[in-house]
Amino acid sequence: MAKVRPICLVDRVASVRNGDGFKEERRGERVIPAHLTMHALHFGEKEGLFKESILMRAADEMDEFKAIKLIYIACEGAQPGFHKEYPLEEFVQKLDVEMTEVLYIAESLIIDSLPDAKSEFIASMEDVTKKDAGEKK
Questions:
Q1: Beta-bridge partner residues of 16
Q2: Is pTM, for the whole model, over 0.85?
């Protein structure tokens, strides 16, 4: 089973004067579980959020906007029906993630969903490499 990642949503972030500067004040914080499931992938394709396999093309073509959509469908994957409570536009407004973290979270969701396949791929590549090395002798 894939690792579940916490995603923080907030109703409101306000900048409040604090002595010499400002500090952020968060209200209505809620932590949502997220992980990629078959339901999440189907939902993303059905809703037109992704037109091709996100797992196969993500590493080459991931940008911040695709990453946010991926996080959104992962929340739907962990909680079917999530999209009814939080339409995409509202989700984006409430998503409390630093821009520098968006790509990292999205890529982590993909990697976490494929641990066995990755291990199998590495093992098969090692077998092929060993066979090729043996044939060259």
A1: 23
A2: no
d(CA 35, CA 114): 11
Nearest to 7 by CA among 84, 67, 81: 67
List, for residues 27-49, the tens digit of each pLDDT value. Answer: 889 999 999 988 998 999 899 98
E-state strands within 19-59 = 21-27, 30-34
Q: What type of residue sits at position 70?
A: L
Calculate helix-pair angle for 38-46, 54-61, nearest 10 degrees: 70
Among 92, 44, 98, CA closest to 68: 92
Alpha helix ranges (H) inside 62-114: 64-78, 82-85, 88-94, 99-113
| DSSP state for residue 8 in the 8-state scheme | E
- Ranges under pLDDT 50 in the chain: none
